[in-house]
């Protein structure tokens, strides 16, 4: 299934019955604790959905911009902004993260929560280089992503079965009740994460466990903090 088609199908499901999806990836609370002592004013969320993390970040007085390719999600975020009576310090823009509309060195920090998982293997590096481009030198990057979960028999089976369809180990299919494929989701190995972080200096790479709101199923997760080092592929793990 073509990525764009899958994404559209997923987006329709997300807003069915006007309900907002509850995401498994936690809000970036660790990142907020980390930046308390830093002089960070502006932050960009890539793939902001209906804006739950942007509203959370705004509470810490950051100037927040959220981008998402899905018009309905962005409209939902703008409606929420109006409902909360927020008139400044937060902005939502329809934009594909593979081709960001911002000039180089625009933000003090960039955050990505559960978006790399949706991007095809070929395009993950493009997304990372866009994140790096719009970050100021020494700007901070916060990522929360799904980790490979061989210990959980549900995922062990899905990795083995789904690789025939997705052609990438660790990429699972997310299906509707009829068994139709809604979209793919990748669970990262530590090696894959480290590879994506080249061009950044890793400050911390913590393993966590995320629990899905709907099924109470558990999955490994990574909570990552990194810093842009200008013209450097240096890494510290
Ligand atoms: C799992 S949701 C997470 C939403 C949000 N980060 C959060 O944690 O609340 C992933 C979001 O990424 C968006 N997305 C996927 N591919 C995208 C792309 N190429 N450009 C921009 N947004 C994208 C989807 O529309 C979706 O809203």
**Inertia-based shape:** globular
The number of distinct helices, counting runs of at least 4 residues, comes to 7
Do you know the CATH architecture?
3-Layer(aba) Sandwich
Percent in helix: 25-40%
How much of the sequence is in beta strands?
25-35%
The CATH superfamily is identified as Vaccinia Virus protein VP39
Bound molecules: S-adenosylmethionine
Oligomer type: single chain
- Pick out the low-confidence regions: 233-237
Q: What is the radius of gyration?
A: 17 Å
Number of structural domains: 1
Which class in CATH terms?
Alpha Beta
Physical arrangement of strands within the biggest beta sheet: 3-2-1-4-5-9-8
CATH fold category name: Rossmann fold
Compute the separation of the termini in Å. Answer: 36 Å
Average the pLDDT over all residues and give the rounded result: 90
Number of strands: 9
Question: Care to describe what's here?
Answer:
With 237 residues, the chain is an alpha/beta fold. It has a single domain, classed as Vaccinia Virus protein VP39 (Rossmann fold, 3-Layer(aba) Sandwich). The protein is built from 7 helices and 9 strands; from the N terminus they run H-H-E-H-E-H-E-E-H-E-H-E-E-H-E-E. It has helices spanning 3-14, 29-35, 52-58, 71-83, 121-134, 153-166, 190-196, and strands at residues 42-46, 63-68, 90-94, 107-113, 135-146, 171-175, 181-186, 200-211, 218-228. The strands form 2 sheets. Strands 3-2-1-4-5-9-8 form a 7-stranded mixed β-sheet. The protein has a two-stranded antiparallel sheet with strand order 6-7. Helix 4 links the parallel strand 2 (63-68) and strand 3. It is globular, with a radius of gyration of 17 Å. Residues 233-237 have low confidence and may be disordered. S-adenosylmethionine binds at residues 7, 23, 25, 47-49, 52-53, 68-70, 73, 96-98, 113-115, 118.
């Amino acid at each position: 299934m073509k990525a764009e088609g899958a994404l559209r199908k997923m987006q329709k499901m997300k807003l069915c019955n006007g309900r907002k999806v509850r995401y498994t990836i936690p809000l970036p609370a660790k990142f907020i604790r980390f930046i308390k002592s830093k002089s960070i004013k502006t932050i960009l969320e890539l793939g902001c959905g209906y804006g739950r993390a942007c509203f959370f970040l705004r509470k810490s007085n950051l100037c927040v911009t959220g981008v998402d390719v899905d018009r309905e999600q962005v409209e939902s975020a703008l409606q929420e902004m109006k409902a909360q009576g927020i008139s400044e310090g937060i902005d939502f823009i329809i934009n594909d993260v593979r081709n960001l509309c911002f000039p180089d060195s625009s933000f003090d920090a960039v955050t990505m929560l559960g978006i790399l998982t949706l991007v095809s293997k070929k395009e993950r590096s493009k997304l990372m280089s866009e994140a790096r481009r719009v970050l100021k030198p020494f700007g901070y990057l916060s990522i929360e992503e799904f980790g490979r979960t061989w210990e959980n028999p549900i995922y062990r089976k899905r990795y083995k079965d789904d690789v025939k369809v997705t052609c990438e180990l660790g990429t699972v299919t997310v299906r509707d009740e009829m068994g139709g494929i809604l979209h793919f989701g990748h669970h990262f190995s530590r090696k894959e994460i480290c590879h994506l972080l080249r061009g950044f200096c890793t400050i911390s790479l913590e393993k966590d466990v995320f629990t899905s709101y709907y099924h109470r199923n558990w999955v490994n997760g990574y909570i990552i903090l990194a810093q842009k080092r200008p013209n450097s592929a240096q890494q510290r793990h």
